[in-house]
Structures are given as structure tokens and as C-alpha cells.
Amino acid sequence: MTQTINKSGLFTAGCFALITTAMSFGLRAGMVPVWQNQFGLTAEDAGWIAATAFWGFTLAMIFGGPLCDLLGIKKLIYIAFAGHLVGIVWTIFSDNFWSFYLSTLVVGVANGLVEAACNPLVTSMYTDEKTKMLNRFHMWFPGGIVIGGLVGYFMTEAGISWKYQIATMLIPNIIYGVMFFDKIVPVTERVSSGVSSGDMYKACIKPFFLLLVFCMMISAATELGTGQLITKLLEGTGQSGLLVLVFINGLMAVGRLFAGPIVHRLSPLGMLLFSSVFSALGLYALSEATGGMTFVAAGVFATGICFFWPTNLGFVSESLPKTGALGLAIMGGAGMLSVSIVLPILGRFLDQQSGAATLKTFAILPLCLSVIFAILYFQNKAKKAQ
Question: Which domains does the chain have, with CATH numbers?
């Protein structure tokens, strides 16, 4: 059966699934204000609609991890496909708070199921190149945000309705559904290696794994929390927050594409230490930048957050393989959960102080992460030297 598995075809199909997920993030950033104006929604209503995508993602990842082993990767992907299809069409025909809230929740759940299914798919197919291939796979998250952001920007400039903008998500949605249809999908690495469910659950409560979950929460808050409020955070710089977001995600996509040689040179822990330091420097630089220097500072920040998410996943899968699909799901779910927690905190800071002061304060998070990863990096280096 292994010989009939089309790795490149499955990988490409997974990338289109992730593009669908990411486009929802890129398009929603521009849609929520339009929905507010057109349907009389309050700012609080808009906040609840945006937040439900993160909660839906988190719940789907946490429950999707065990289901990935129970139902199989392919069935989970098809549940995600159906969720995307229903959620996108429902959003197009929404016209009030509850219809937007529930349709966004369905899309959020589908997004989480894509992540819950495709991360173990990649690690199962590329057991010797997990971090490299997870980075290459996850290049399509920032890549999809760029696609969604640009689609929203140019279609809005052309006066095209938000409904047609949302409908563009159906293109990658249908593509990945068709591409997965006739392909044999491997079982998860945990199942193929004979690791029991009990051993998987035990591995997921080890202190080292829980520490990595905590690190994932901080890194995800640094990356995605900043991105969701980038327009408000960069007020006063004289630059478009949306274009800066597109610039950051474009650099991230390129960086993840060429992550392989960097992994080989630095090791996953070295990459995470590098990412933490540059993320802190980037946030501080953004807090001081104005005019064209905003893009320079954004480049430093993009270099930092570029490898966070996939390298965290790759490091867990390589160093704690018994955690399996559940471990990957917990990591991803914890990351999205942290974003939903940090967004109102960031909003409170913005209510009390400027975007620049908020960025400077927020830089403390990756700075603390730098200390943790530095300790782990040098401990690991010392063990290898013995």
C-alpha cells in the first residue's frame, strides 16, 4: 500500500486545504467592518463574530486529534471540506448577527479540522524531514492570507460585493476536495508505529510537553495576535496596516519555503531561539518606526515569527513522537486559544495607550520566550557534547 501513496499529490491537496483556511483569515479582516456598516452590527457584535473563528478552530483541533486516529485522516479532511463548503455558502447568504456568528463558527471548525488532519498527514509521509516539510506546508498559511488580503483589497477597490469576495474561497475548497477524492491516505505515524492510545495520552501530560505547549501559546500570540490588530497597532506610522500585513505574510511564506537548509544548520531549537529574539526585536522596532522604516521593522518581525508555528510542531513530533496526532492537535489548539485570550488584552492596551506603546509592551512575550528557548538550546547542546 505504501508504494501507491502519492506523497506529492497529497501534500499539494493539503496545501490547498490550508489556503482555504488562511484565505478566511485574510478576507475576514476586511469583511467585519463592512458587515458592521451594512447590517447595523455593533463593535461588540463584530468582536464576537471574529472571536468565534478562533474558538471553533481551537475546539476542532483538540477533538480532531483523537478523531484523526479513530476515523482516519481522509475522513477528517472530508468533514473539513463539508464544513468549509457549508460555512462559506452560509456566510454569503448571511444578513444578521446570528447567521454571521454561526457561519463563521462552522468555517472556524473546518479550519481547525484541516490543521488537525494535515499536520499528522505531513509527519506520517515525511518521517525524516518533519520540521522541513511542516514549514513548507505551513508556508501556505501566510501565503493564503496574502491571497485573501489581495483579493479583498483589489475587489473592494473595484467595487465588487463582499459576497463575491467570500465566494472566491470556494475555489481552493473544491480543489482540495477533488484532489483528496481518489487518493490513498496513510494512517498516522502513531498508528503505523504501534504506539498505544494509552502511551500517547501519557506522553501528552509529560512536563516537557506541557512546557512546549506553553511556548506555543506565547509564540502564537506574538504572531497571530499582532496580525489581527495590525491596523490599529500601526496607526500613526503613515502606512497601511493591511499592506504591512500582506508584506509580513509574503516574507513568511518565502521563509518557510526555504526552511530546510536553516533547519539543517540551526536545528529546530536553534530556529526557535532565533525566532524569539527576532520577534522581540521586530516588535520593538515597529513601536519606533514611521514612514518607510515601518516596512523595514516589519521585515525584522516577519523574520522572527516566520518559523514559530511549524517549527514548534516539528520539534514536538521529532522529540516526543509518542504524542502523535493528539500532541500536534493540542499544540495547534493551544496556539489558537492563546490568540483568543490575548486579543481582548491587546485591545485593552490600545484603549489605554498608543499602538506604539502597546507593541513595546507586547515585545516582553517573545523576550521571555527567548530565555526559555536559550536554556533548552544550551542544555541540549551540552547533552550532545557529553
Answer: 2-385 (1.20.1250.20)
